[in-house]
Design goal:
Layout: E1 4-13, H1 19-28, E2 40-49, E3 52-61, E4 80-84, H2 90-106, H3 116-126, H4 141-156
Parallel strand pairs: 1-3, 1-4
Antiparallel strand pairs: 2-3
GO molecular function: GTP binding; GTPase activity
GO biological process, one term: TOR signaling
Organism: Podarcis muralis (Wall lizard)
Length: 168
């Protein structure tokens, strides 16, 4: 039995560039001749890729411009984005660049404000262990808790020394 994976993808772009047409062609295999501005529509489709089955939720959005504030719902729980522009519209190409920047910033790629060395220096000044982790990226999540247990055990087994709480 194939593994079913769920994926949510958002289609973004300037108004009337073909976002809905692209979605309909993919979902229904047909091209819509008439233009009807989209508010927001969601489509579902199952597809097989290799041995895996994917349940795709495709969110077709209303047209954006460079001043559009992207709703939080367009950044939380989203696995991917399709940015659409029209080859006949320079404005739509510029909007795609702006959307890419906004998405990149909202995903936390440029938000680091504390350097690793600064965190390490602070921990050293406290006499604490320093580990940097990210729950989102699953980096060192096991290591944080493994290390605190090891440190507690190290202190508990230090006979003749004062016992205290471990800071990390």
């Amino acid at each position: 039995m194939p593994l079913v994976r769920y994926r949510k993808v958002v289609i973004l772009g300037y108004r009337s560039v073909g976002k809905t047409s692209l979605a309909h062609q993919f979902i229904d295999g047909e091209f819509l001749e008439c233009y009807d501005p989209t508010v927001e529509s969601t489509y579902n489709k199952m597809l097989m890729l290799g041995k895996d089955e994917f349940h795709l939720q495709l969110v077709d959005t209303a047209g954006q411009d460079e001043y559009t504030i992207l709703p939080h719902s367009f950044t939380i729980g989203i696995h991917g984005y399709v940015l659409v522009y029209s080859v006949t519209s320079l404005k739509s190409f510029q909007v795609v660049k702006s959307l890419h920047s906004k998405l990149y910033e909202s995903r936390g790629k440029t938000s680091r404000q504390v350097k690793t060395d600064e965190g390490r220096k602070l921990a050293d000044s406290w006499g604490a262990v320093f580990l940097e982790s990210s729950a989102k990226e699953n980096q060192m999540t096991q290591g944080v808790f493994t290390r605190i247990i090891e440190e507690i055990d190290r202190v508990d087994n230090s006979y003749g020394e004062q016992r205290g709480c471990i800071l990390m």
